[in-house]
Inverse folding.
């Protein structure tokens, strides 16, 4: 009697394994159950470099434009005056770059607003009345900034900055 039960059990196993119909589940998955893949996108900025040399004074500017921010480096090497070298981050509004420039000058770290008009491979630095707010120098009124009297930098090949 042992063998007929064994044969019946094996036959049931073979029939069950031959069933190709997929099993239906009553379980549902939720957002917590699914694994979300996070994509790391490498953003390569559009880089441009500019320079101005007048006498013994040299100003260099490297602008790196990302989709939502503009960063770069700015250096003022002025003969017999305070020189400064630092980095900036800001926003591009049309052809106008408004940024916070953090720099070292005479061993002191400072921050001030800078503004540049970028047109036809020329960058004009804007000047206007400034005031101190929250530890940095900012323009009193952006609408009163003048680009005609400021430095004019020409586009150059990017080198070491």
């Amino acid at each position: 009697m042992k063998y007929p039960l064994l044969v019946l059990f094996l036959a049931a196993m073979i029939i069950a394994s031959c069933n190709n119909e997929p099993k239906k589940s009553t379980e549902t998955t939720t957002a917590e159950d699914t694994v979300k893949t996070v994509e790391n996108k490498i953003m390569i900025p559009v880089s441009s470099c500019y320079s101005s040399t007048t006498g013994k004074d040299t100003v260099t500017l490297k602008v790196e434009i990302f989709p939502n921010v503009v960063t770069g480096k700015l250096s003022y090497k002025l003969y017999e005056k305070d020189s400064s070298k630092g980095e900036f981050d800001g926003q591009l509004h049309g052809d106008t770059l408004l940024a916070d420039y953090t720099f070292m000058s005479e061993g002191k770290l400072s921050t001030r607003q800078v503004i540049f008009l970028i047109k036809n491979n020329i960058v004009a630095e804007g000047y206007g009345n400034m005031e101190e707010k929250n530890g940095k120098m900012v323009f009193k009124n952006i609408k009163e900034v003048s680009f005609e009297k400021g430095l004019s930098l020409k586009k150059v090949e990017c080198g070491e900055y």
Remarks:
- Residues 124 and 152 are 5 Å apart (CA to CA).
